[in-house]
Amino acid sequence: MKTLKRSLLATAAILAMGTQAHAAQGQTSVSFNFPNIVILHYVSDVTFDIPATVLGGADQAVNEGTGGTFTTLTGNTGMALTINQTLNGFLGAANNAWAVRGITTSGNIQVSIASTSLSATNGTSTVAMSNLQVSDGTNTAQTITVPAPGFAGANAVFGNVLMTLDFSGVTVAGTHTGATYTVTATAI
Fold first, then answer.
1. Taking a C-beta distance cutoff of 8 angstroms, is the pair 80, 131 a contact?
2. Tens digit of pLDDT per residue, the chain (188 long)?
3. Under a CB-based contact definition with an 8 Å cutoff, are residues 41 and 99 in contact?
């Protein structure tokens, strides 16, 4: 009976050990490493429809004052004809021509503009562009810095392209083509 008692106690002890919960835990740190990501939205074609009013109106007759006396058919001895309309120095603006979004280590994106062709032509008629700049409404320059707003499209930073236009070489009505600019967005 002693043996039976010992066997029952040993069995009870073994069963008691098997029902005890044994657990091991390990905590894991999780990290996410993102590279600089810049997304540039832009328009690939811009057409400025120049209204006649920019150049003083449509077909016009301009009275420049009293004329002089013509002494020959090839000369003009007294009439000083001056055109008061300056044909250069017009400001062209392509509003919302670009937008950027993304993430950078500095929290900023650099936006710049350059051109490979500053002239638009129609035969020998030419429109010249100069002083190309980008603007976010606060900063305007050839290169500006804007905040990196993350990935959400609703947070994108929108911007304009500004340029000075010279119409003094325009001699033909119609579309003048060939001028180009490039907007570049860089993680900084």
1. no
2. 566 666 666 666 666 665 567 899 999 999 999 999 999 999 888 888 887 776 766 665 655 444 444 433 334 344 433 334 457 778 888 888 999 999 999 999 999 999 989 999 999 999 999 999 999 999 999 999 999 999 999 999 999 999 988 888 999 999 999 999 999 999 99
3. yes
The one-letter code for the residue type at 187 is A
Give the full edge-to-edge strand order of the sheet including 108-117.
Answer: 143-147, 108-117, 180-187
Using alpha carbons, list the distances in angstroms from residue 61 to 52, 57, 104.
Answer: 14, 10, 58
The strand pair at 108-117 and 143-147 is best described as antiparallel
Task: Give me the helices (H) in the chain, please.
Answer: 2-19
Q: What is the pTM of this model?
A: 0.73
